[in-house]
């Protein structure tokens, strides 16, 4: 078995390589690795062309598992995701043909373009880690992660995910355009790739290494005061009137227990990636926005005043004391 430091170094090498491949999106790269370590799924929202697909594709090259992209469209069927039973007329038997959901890394591109039935098939597989077809149930790979993308610019002909289904995602990450320096570096990278000067990927992480890293993440120390901080943040979304009238006026429905679990796991994963064996309040606050923004349901008053979920989370950070 590899030593802890060797696995951590392998993850750092993967992170550095991805940063060279996906320029101007360091937070997306880190959140992908956090989701992989925390054994969760990622919802990414951003305009076209900001390297969402490229990022998950790069991650797939850094691990030993396989990768599949599903383009979600209005005519997609649940069986196109999960697979289906195939009838063999020569002997009257059926055999199950696995769908793309049975890969280790799955990109659900533009998930909100498919109708609710298809979205539900994907999200059920994400939550239960299994697929049921007919009377049989088929388990998904032990290393399994879905990254779903949404385009915020085009809402016509889309099917927004219900709040209960959004809760299945560990984090929701908003991706913006790169800055001017990153844009210059992107042009250089594109020229190098066109001329065949690709940056070689590091040695792929095995399933054994990844599972050992996950075990180490769970062992990262979290002080009782930090754990209580996570609980208080969650409770503040459910009983905001105990903190301030302003907060109460903005939150219609608070976050579920899944949010507390996600905040705990993501904070530990972030600390581990940063080379620490303990969680700090800054770790919690760093992932708080990504964990809460898709779970909070805001009031009409908040929406009418242009208050976003991130604005409300910023208020939470101000008003909930650490420790």
What would your notes on this structure say?
The structure is a single chain. This protein is an alpha/beta fold and 323 residues long. It folds into 2 domains: 4-194, P-loop containing nucleotide triphosphate hydrolases (Rossmann fold, 3-Layer(aba) Sandwich), CATH 3.40.50.300; 220-319, Helicase, Ruva Protein, domain 3 (Orthogonal Bundle). It is 48% helix and 16% strand. The protein has 14 helices and 11 strands. It has helices at residues 4-21, 26-37, 52-61, 78-82, 116-128, 163-166, 180-194, 207-218, 224-238, 245-250, 257-273, 281-292, 300-304, 309-319; strands spanning 42-46, 67-71, 83-88, 93-98, 105-109, 130-133, 136-139, 145-150, 171-175, 251-253, 297-298. The strands form 4 sheets. Strands 2-5-8-1-9 form a 5-stranded parallel β-sheet. Strands 3-4 form a two-stranded antiparallel sheet. The chain has a two-stranded antiparallel ribbon with strand order 6-7. Helix 11 crosses helix 12. The longest helix is centred in the first third of the chain and has 18 residues, at 4-21. The chain is globular, with a radius of gyration of 21 Å. The two termini are 38 Å apart. The model has no long low-confidence stretch (mean pLDDT 89).
């Amino acid at each position: 078995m590899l030593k802890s430091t060797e696995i951590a170094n392998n993850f750092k090498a993967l992170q550095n390589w991805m940063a060279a491949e996906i320029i101007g999106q360091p937070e997306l790269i880190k959140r992908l690795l956090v989701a992989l370590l925390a054994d969760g799924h990622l919802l990414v929202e951003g305009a076209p062309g900001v390297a969402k697909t490229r990022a998950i594709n790069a991650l797939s090259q850094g691990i030993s598992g396989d990768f599949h992209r599903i383009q979600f469209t209005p005519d997609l069927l649940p069986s196109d995701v999960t697979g289906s039973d195939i009838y063999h007329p020569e002997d009257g038997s059926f055999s199950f043909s696995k769908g793309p959901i049975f890969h280790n890394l799955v990109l659900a591109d533009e998930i909100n373009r498919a109708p609710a039935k298809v979205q539900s098939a994907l999200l059920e597989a994400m939550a239960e880690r299994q697929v049921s077809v007919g009377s049989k149930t088929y388990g998904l790979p032990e290393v399994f992660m879905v990254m779903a993308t949404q385009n915020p610019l085009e809402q016509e002909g889309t099917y927004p995910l219900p709040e209960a289904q959004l809760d299945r995602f560990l984090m929701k990450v908003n991706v913006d355009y790169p800055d001017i320096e990153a844009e210059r570096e992107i042009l250089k990278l594109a020229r190098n790739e066109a001329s065949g000067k690709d940056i070689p990927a590091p040695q792929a992480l095995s399933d054994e290494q990844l599972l050992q890293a996950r075990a180490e993440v769970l062992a990262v120390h979290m002080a009782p005061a930090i754990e209580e901080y996570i609980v208080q943040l969650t409770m503040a979304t459910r009983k905001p009137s105990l903190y301030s009238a302003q907060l109460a006026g903005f939150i219609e429905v608070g976050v579920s227990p899944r949010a507390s679990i996600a905040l705990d796991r993501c904070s530990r994963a972030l600390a581990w990636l940063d080379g620490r064996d303990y969680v700090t309040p800054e770790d919690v606050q760093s992932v708080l926005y990504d964990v809460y923004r898709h779970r909070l349901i805001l009031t009409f008053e908040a929406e009418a005043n242009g208050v976003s979920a991130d604005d409300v989370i910023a208020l939470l950070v101000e008003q909930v004391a650490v420790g």
